[in-house]
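This part of the workshop introduces the protein records we will be handling. A record pairs a protein's sequence with a compact description of its fold. Comparing a sequence with its tokens is the quickest way to learn the format. The record below serves as our worked example for the rest of this section:
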Amino acid sequence: MMANAIVTIKIMPESPDVDLDKLSPEIEGKINSFAGEGDRRKEIQPIAFGLNALQIIFVMDEKKGSTEPLEEEISKIEGVQSVEVVDVRRAIG
């Protein structure tokens, strides 16, 4: 049986001046090349003092294993301060 994992990553920008909407397509491109095209949801989360984080939830094949290579790729994008996997769950069905 093939199992999918639902992964939630949180991307923190270097400053409140970073436009998350401009970063988003590049980040999603990295997710596509890592996990393939698929269902995803993204939301902007207010953190503090005008700083927002970008949270993206996506589905990947569990066989891929660790999301570390993806996290490294995203953290290389200009304007990104940190990338953190905040949740992973198994999708049934």
